[in-house]
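It is worth pausing here to work through a concrete case rather than discussing structure prediction in the abstract. The textbook approach is simple: state the sequence, then state the predicted structure, then interpret. We follow exactly that order.
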Amino acid sequence: MPTLEDLERQLGGLDGRRILVRCDFNVPLRSTPDGRIEISDDLRIREALPTLSWLTERGADVTACSHLGRPAGAPDERFSLAPVAERLAVSASGVALVENLRFHSGEAANDPAFVDSLVAGEIAVRFGNGTRSAPFDGYVNDAFGVSHRVHASIVGPPRYLPSAAGRLLAREVDVLGGLRADARRPFVAVLGGAKISDKLGVVEALSGTVDTLVIGGGMCFTFLSALGHGVGDSLCEPDFIETCERLLSGGANIVLPSDITALDAGGTVRQMGRSLPEGCRGLDIGPGSAAEFDDVIAPARTVFWNGPMGLFEDERFVAGTRAVAQSMADSRAFAVVGGGDSAAAVAQFGLAPYMDHISTGGGAGLELIERGDLPGLAALRDSP
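Step two, the predicted structure:
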């Protein structure tokens, strides 16, 4: 992919050049007691700063753009980027910011007319000093977390402008893309989360790549059902049982939980084996499974983790997810956390500093591992 240095050479320098940077400022917000809206985790803003700083230090006139939440293609103050603008004013002064891209229906629809307006600089800049309307000279994609979306701001500008990958996007591609071919071995993948249907593609891709595939979370119950175990009232997808049977018999080294932390019909938390009676709902891996998963992770040289082991938001079912995070922190492996809930978990446990890479894009990361490419990356490679 073209780099920032490539863009600088192609434009003959960046001083005075107008550069549009697609960031991922889809940060979590919370209401304060006095009614203000503030950012509860600014990781995605901090991750964008190396790219923004590099451009502004070279004299570029930088305008950032992003989405936030899921407004219905029209302005909605609940999803305003105003809190992001406040943070940028301190950490990246001089960078202008367009209001939420998803206030325009053309963003998600990849409307050519909206792309034309965007690259022409006709979309009003609400925050910062870059309020003049003038065409952009170049485009930078630093929004890895949405680069699997065929949205106007992701795939549109590279059709018209010299384009490049930002520092964050390049790092994500280097790390996650490298897992397919260059991972140090033993290579262990730990997958969790609710549904096997959400991660079937990456399970199939990794089953032929990793040395060991560890499966927990709600998705493990479809696998356990495929082995003939009762799963009680646990989350299970009957339509995928045959698929799980095929994966289990396909030669891949798949490790499943040997015990389960469950909630019985009376609301009591119980430790149980692999088979659960009717009325019981599995909500975490058990302590024996946590120890067994640690035995797999400890000797690994690369570990990729995506998806919690249970309902970790509930203190009664946090132990499995905490154990996996601690195992990764304690290991000598190159530890990669695949965004989303897993990233939130390691932050909650105070273990983020012990991970080698925490992805800003859960879905995008999984799709990159599964398919080896993303629409946003292909668009950059094809830019003029």
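Step three, interpretation. Residues 127 and 213 are 46 Å apart (CA to CA). The mean pLDDT is 94.
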